[in-house]
Amino acid sequence: MSDLYDNDELIDEALSLTDKLFGQLLPTVPKAVLSLDISMRQLKILFLLYVRGTMRMTDIASALDISLPAASNLADRLVERGHALREGCAEDRRVVFCRLSEEGTRTVGHIWHSARRRCRDLLRQMELQKLQQLIEALDAMYEVSLLEQPTEERCEEHAGPLG
């Protein structure tokens, strides 16, 4: 039982350090991005679409733990602002997909690459041995994530860039 307790303490410590790191990375987000006229939930949709590619509206609602009508309203506002596109599935008219527009891709890409540049700067300052340990830890975490990935049903023509 003490091993489990130690494991939970280590996990909490890792998450606490991750929070602190994100706090260090946040100031690098360009001011133009922080002044976007979108809600946090809309921003979450943009990030979901950036990472996962085109998604069904039902999957977006599920990922955000909100109702389908709420997800549709959020997506509609993103479409109105030019950040996203909605389209139907040729095989099933009831299925609606959402994907990033060029503007949405540019917006989220700007945030993503800004944080990535800051990470690169920090990683360059690390000792080689610690950098190698970090890579091993991140690789192990990635391997675990692959074991838990659910398979998603979607039309082949709508598979996202990372999906």
H/I helix tally: 7
CATH class label: Mainly Alpha
- What is the strand content? 5-15%
The CATH architecture can be given as Orthogonal Bundle
Q: Report, as a whole number of angstroms, the end-to-end distance.
A: 39 Å
N-to-C order of helices and strands: HHHEHHEEHH
CATH H-level name... which superfamily?
A: Winged helix-like DNA-binding domain superfamily/Winged helix DNA-binding domain
Uncertain segments are: 151-163
Q: What's the story with the biggest beta sheet?
A: 3 strands, antiparallel
| Count of β-strands | 3
What Rg do the Cα atoms give? 19 Å
Approximately how much helix is present in the residues? 55-70%
CATH topology: the name is: Arc Repressor Mutant, subunit A
* Shape assignment: globular
Number of domains: 1
Structural class: mainly alpha
If strands are numbered along the chain, what order do they take across the biggest sheet?
A: 1-3-2
Mean pLDDT score: 84
SSE layout and pairing:
Layout: H1 2-25, H2 31-34, H3 40-52, E1 55-56, H4 57-64, H5 68-80, E2 84-89, E3 92-100, H6 102-124, H7 128-148
Antiparallel strand pairs: 1-3, 2-3
